[in-house]
TrEMBL record:
This is S1 RNA-binding domain-containing protein. Keywords: Ribonucleoprotein, Ribosomal protein. Belongs to the bacterial ribosomal protein bS1 family. Residues 125-192, 208-239 form the S1 motif domain. It comes from Anaeromassilibacillus senegalensis.
Length: 305
């Protein structure tokens, strides 16, 4: 079975079919299938109420996430799922005093299965599909399967440095990531290795072109302009240029042996831009190493997984 970040199953035909009526839901319970539906309420006891269309579902607090029962995960992991898809396994049906049937659900059991059959088998260098869940100044958190979250540190998002993950990513964005480190089942992600080498990015440009960029930093010796998330060039100093501005830059030279792109700023201006979906140069499922620097470069920059 393939495991997905939460939200991938909810609109699939087989998921919808499992919630057409009580009989279909009962079949799903018998087969212990992982389903998804939208949680509507977190009650005052931190139980999640889930809309199953054919009936109401409830995820008791201790079944809301791995670690809640043990006290290693805070209740915000449950509260934050309101109005979002949640995965679960149907474990029981109960009837209230008015004869109404409620399905008892367990998100924890779905996560346990994901951990045992998928996450525990991942190794460093594996490339996986993830979904961004929230952003912090130090990095992005991503759902790697069934709502289990891992950290993508800010310095691993791209080669070109950024001040905040929101400059690259948005909540709900689906991206690919590589397993950078694994301590038991605690995983740290990386992303920059999938965005191409210096040479792959530099080959997208030609000397004499005027292209778009983003001002990343202003130093005493020049201004760093990001051309792609994995490629920046150095422009000559110019007055009234601020980090974060958009720039039009003339490409003066491209020097692979020194890993340098020399630029001249034509114009800078303020512009509120939104992150674009990443462009990937690697489409495999595993990488043993990533060499960013070109062969003729004086520097050697390599990541070994």
């Amino acid at each position: 079975m393939k495991f997905y970040p939460e939200g991938h199953l909810i609109d699939r035909a087989e998921n919808k079919a499992a919630m057409l009526n009580a009989a279909a839901l009962s079949d799903a319970m018998r087969d212990a299938r992982i389903l998804e539906a939208r949680s509507m309420i977190c009650d005052n006891e931190h139980n999640l109420i889930v809309d199953l269309k054919c009936m109401r579902g409830i995820i008791p607090r201790e079944e809301g996430a791995l670690g809640i029962r043990e006290g290693t995960v805070r209740d915000i992991a449950i509260i934050s799922r309101v109005n979002k898809p949640v995965c679960f396994i149907v474990t029981d049906f109960i009837r209230d005093a008015y004869g109404r049937i409620t399905a008892v659900l367990s998100r924890r059991k779905a996560q346990e299965r994901c951990m045992e059959q998928y996450i525990s088998r991942l190794v460093r260098g594996d490339v996986i599909d993830v979904r961004i869940t929230h952003l912090e100044p130090f990095g992005a958190f991503a759902d790697i399967g069934c709502g289990i979250v891992s950290l993508l540190p800010i310095d691993a998002i791209s080669v070109s440095r950024i001040d905040h993950p929101r400059e690259r990513l948005t909540v709900g964005m689906d991206i690919r990531a590589v397993i950078r480190a694994k301590d038991e089942n605690r995983i740290t992600l990386s992303h920059k290795e999938l965005l191409g080498t210096w040479k792959q990015n530099a080959e997208r440009f030609r000397v004499g072109e005027t292209v778009a960029g983003i001002v990343r930093s202003v130093e005493s010796y020049g201004i760093f302009i990001e051309l792609t998330p994995n490629l920046a060039g150095l422009a000559e100093l110019k007055e009234n240029v601020q980090p974060g501005q958009q720039a039009s830059v003339f490409i003066k030279s491209i020097l692979p042996n020194r890993m340098k792109v020399k630029l001249v700023i034509v114009e800078c201006f303020d512009y509120a831009y939104k992150p674009e979906p990443p462009v990937y140069f690697f489409d495999g499922d595993h990488m043993d190493k990533f060499i960013y620097s070109p062969p003729e470069s004086e520097k050697h920059i390599e990541t070994i997984f």
